[in-house]
Amino acid sequence: MDLIWEGIVQAVSLVVKGDREILGVTLLSLAVSGSATALSLLLGIPAGAFLALSNFPGRRVVVSLVNTGMGLPPVVVGLFVTIFLWRNGPFGFLQILYTPIAMVIAQCIIATPIIAGLTLAALQQLNPKLRLQILALGASPLQMVWLLLLEAKLPLLAAVMAGFGAVISEIGASMMVGGNILGQTRVLTTATVMETSKGNFGVAIALSLVLLLLVYLVNLILTSAQQRGRAQ
Q1: CATH code for the domain in which residue 127 is found
Q2: List of the chain residues with pLDDT < 70
């Protein structure tokens, strides 16, 4: 208990003083995970909408793959992204392994199935007659999809929170494709593991507190927007 208490005291001191290394790691974590979440929204929402509003041979298989992807182990993603980006891999010529770009790619792969699956579920919960009513009023197919997404905006905001939460807290893929390089690819989760292995529990607890605070603030903003939408 003394070790935990001393760690918490040291953590609060580092956070209050605005430790430069912790600040840099925090900003990089936010940049990488924020970019990955944004890309996953661009990919996942259209994919989920397509699966929800279309019917084609093999659709159940594709939906099952998306649902399976929602629980995709980050270390598996990290392994295959590393292989593809390795110097002898198919995309090794890009030379982006052990860079933030590689981390964004890996985290995007993790978050996209989550966004797609929750978008699919959100649109399927809407009244089927709503789609026909929108088309009957003269809306184009794209306008129809947009209006349905607006109707399902509350669960879609929950999808954003789930996607961001999945990538900001993962460590396996980030460690494998980023390498945990100080000042370049070290993020909150990988730094926490490293400091814990070194016995620097104060720094590790400080990083953990910052991570929890960051996740809380992002979810607070999204939850506020969600509840305002519910009130309207």
Answers
A1: 1.10.3720.10
A2: 1-3, 7, 226, 229-232
40 alpha carbon, distance to own chain's centre? 8
Q: How far apart are CA 31 and CA 201, in angstroms?
A: 25
State residue 232's pLDDT score. Answer: 56
Cα(129)–Cα(147) distance, integer angstroms: 13
- The full length of the chain comes to 232
Residue 221 to residue 218: CA distance in whole angstroms: 5
- Could you list the residue range(s) of the whole structural domain that residue 152 is in? 2-7+21-231
CA atoms within 13 A on the CB side of 63: 17
Total domains, the chain: 1
**Residue 16 falls inside a structural domain:** no
What gap in Å lies between CA 68 and CA 82, rounded to an integer? 21
**pLDDT per residue as tens digits for the range 39-62:** 999 999 999 999 998 888 999 999
Residues 123/53, Cβ–Cβ less than 8 Å: yes
| Helix, strand, coil distribution of the chain in percent, nearest 5 | 80, 0, 20
Look-up of token digits 């100080």: 182
Q: At a CB cut-off of 8 Å and minimum separation 6, what does 121 contact? A: 155
Q: Cα(66)–Cα(47) distance, rounded to whole angstroms?
A: 10
Quick one: tokens of 157?
A: 């905001």
Contacts of 230 (CB under 8 A, 6+ apart): 154
